[in-house]
Structures are given as structure tokens and as C-alpha cells.
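User: Run a structure prediction on this.
Assistant: Running it now.
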Amino acid sequence: MLPAVAAAASPEVVIEQPVSGSSTNNQMLPFSGTSNDTLDGITLTIHEGGSTGPKAQTLNVIAPLFGTWETAPESPLADGKYTAVAEQTSLGETGSAAVAFTIDTASPTVTLDQPKTPSNDTTPSFTGSASDTEAVTVDIYEGTKAEGTVVSTATATGTGGGWSSGGASPALSSGTYTAAATQPSSLGNAAGKSGAVTFTIDTASPTVTLNQPKTPSNDTTPSFTGSASDTGTVTVKIYGGSSAEGTVLSTATATGTGGGWSSGGASPALSSGTYTAVATQPSSLGNPAGKSSAV
């Protein structure tokens, strides 16, 4: 009886670089690994997408005489996802290994949401999205363009998706500002930058005026006119005497328009006498109320 012959084992080929699941901006990235078969060559096939995707390149590697092998693409790989498959055949038995990797030479994609405007928040925070995991910095400029000197900044932790910043520092005064968000690339590509957003900080009271009503007059329920910069209700308070002090005897109200206003008649009706009126308007932003001069 002839002695039994052991079946040939498949080569144990390993891809050590690149690491599976890694990303790089090196379009000529090296490939390297090991094998216990030092006599047979290795074929490395780079597929677009998964291991069954179209072949981007096929590389022939000489036998790894010392148990290690390396190679590189023949031409730069375009941005995208790839799977490299190394195959080595010995005595009819084939061993293989595969790694997935990504080529990315693009800047991170960064967006910046429009903050509330106008606002009385002098240390506004910001939100948006950013495709990398590096920190996001929001630079704030005076005026309507993201140009000139940065007057304040806010930062956020990069998550690879949505982000929310802390408050801007230093605090902003009333005025118009423009912000843009940037994020560096963890791969060393050019930084990503969002579009610019413009917003207004307003910590002032509404500006309110009260026109002089006709005087003297026999109208016991006088109406009033004036202007008010906010859109809240304007209230005219009427006091007895020549100063806006003491008890309010009557009031008249008007719808705020952000400009000129006209009130309804005062209620309750006034008797003959001398009166003084003042118009007030609350702030829609929560700032102190605006107050006119007395008439």
C-alpha cells in the first residue's frame, strides 16, 4: 500500500497595510503584508467599492522570499471606497486576504445654521454639521461679510455629523455680524468652510416717540400718534397734572408696526383738566421697555 500524501495547505497571506476601514489622502498608498509561502508570487487586486466591484488596478507582487511583501498602485487612485484582495496560490491551493479602505483628498463638508436674528444674546451659540471629527471653529466678523478682523469665536466638538457650539467669546455688543464655521481635515487635506450667515445683536430698548396731541381740546377720549421701533403693543399712559407721575388715570393702546402707530381713544374718558401722557412699548427681545418723552 502506498503511503498517504497530506493535502497541500493554502498559503497564509496577510495584508497589514492599509488597515481595514482606514482612510487616507495618499493616492499612491503602499500595500504590505506577510505570507508563509515564500516561493509563489502574490496578486493584489484593487476593487472599487467591495471585493466584487470593478477592478481599479491589478498588481503582481514577487514571491515574498523573507516572508514579507509590499507594493504600490501603478497610478494614483481617485477618491472613493476600495477593497484590496491579495491572493497567493501554491500547489493548486489559494489563500487570500482582503481590506477595505477609503481615499479622501477633499476638504470636510461644513454647514452653519442661521442663528436667531435679531437677538439680545451677546454670547450666541451656533449649530451646523461637519463631516470630519476635528473641532469646529466659528469665526465672527463685524458687518455683513466674513472679512477683516475676527471679533469673537465659538467652538464645537466635531462628531462627523451635527455639532453645537458653546457661547461666543468675547461677548458681542449691539450690531450686525457675520459668522463662518471652519473645520480642519484629520487627513491633512485643506480645511472645510461653511457659507457665511449674518445676524444682528440688539440689547437696546425700543425707540418710542409720542406726538403732541391737539391742546386745548374738548375730546374727552383723545387718541394719540407716534412711532415705535418694535412690533409690541404701544401703551399710552395718562397722568393728571403737568408731569408723568402718580396714578395713571386713563390709557390708550396701539398696535406696534415697527414704525408709525395710531392709538384708539383713551379709556376711561377724561374730565376737564391738564394731563400728561407717556407712550411705552415692551421689547420683543426681552430688553428693557422703550419709553417716549412726556407730552
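The two ends are 127 Å apart (CA to CA).
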